Amino acid sequence: MKKLDTRKQLVAMTLGATLFALGTHTNVSAATFSSNPLFEVNNYTTTLSVSGDAADIYFPVNSNSATPRKFPIALMLQGALVDKADYSNYASQVAGYGFVVVVPNNFRTAPDPTGQEITGLIPEQQQVQNILTEMVAENSNANSPVNNLVDTKTLGLLGHSLGAFVSLSAAQEEFCFPAICTPGYQKPPELKAVINYAGAFGNTQTQTFLPLNNGDTAIGLIAGSRDGVGIPLITRETYNQVQNPPKVLITVEGANHYSITNEDNLTREPNRPTLEQSIATETIARWSGLFLRAHLLNDRDAFDYVYNTGDALDNNVSVISEKQTIPEPSAAVALLAAGVISLKLRGKSKHN
């Protein structure tokens, strides 16, 4: 009986020490995690060789050249008729989380919802393939500012308004929408995550929505509570139509349709924001950057912020989400420790 008590004490002490260590590690990680950008950012403007369009490229500055690292691509798909320069604040902040953010001016002619042709800055699916091709060339170009800095195998999409619609369309292959789709488009394996602002997947005029069969591509949606163009309820319905988690819907209180841009648009948006423009843009960029870190870089702290703790930490947002079920690290390690202890005790009992 005494030996049995001793063994129980050993198990309790070892498990206790293990759980205490794990708990201490978790607390330290939570205490030291910062939701702020990690890198300083530089940028340049180039002409895309595939399309001939101008593009702004924002990239992290490697502070330690002795240990070079590569950064995934984040393609920003613009709202209709919104110039790339209007996203400079947002794009530079997202880049600070460790991404090469590409913001092209996609100039073309396409039909509007009434059937009339319109010429201007209009995003489309083909940009996804074009940018992947372009960034492979930029990465191997010795004269490029991002030479050997780009992870060309990993892509995330950002989008605003019509650009958000395009980014969601690019995450699936089942429905091809006139004016934005590319016949024969196939979702590239590099596309791992989509996070956009003021977006919907379907006909917003008739409020008819389609199921979004996103496969293994994580989907993030951000909406402004005062959006008078996209309307938050439409974004919420799009969230409901996303077929495969992980997915998240972040509502920014007091933001309107143009809170992602450098300035509000008094002509195209009937509602004025109640959240200061710079704060709203930073909030949208922070959640975008951390969502991409969670799903493109497997950053567990960023994942925890987006799906667990960020809602309580950020007074300007409300969050709903659905994530894939994965074992908690502490629980997995605790079970492993228990198994090891059990094996050790069995070994001891054979000698007793």
UniProtKB/TrEMBL annotation:
InterPro entries: AB_hydrolase_fold, PET_hydrolase/cutinase-like. The keyword Transit peptide does not apply. Keywords: Hydrolase, Signal. It holds the Pfam family PETase. Residues 38-261 form the PET hydrolase/cutinase-like domain. Residues 1-30 form the signal peptide. GO terms for molecular function: hydrolase activity. It comes from the Bacteria. This is Alpha/beta hydrolase family protein. It comes from Floridaenema fluviatile BLCC-F154.
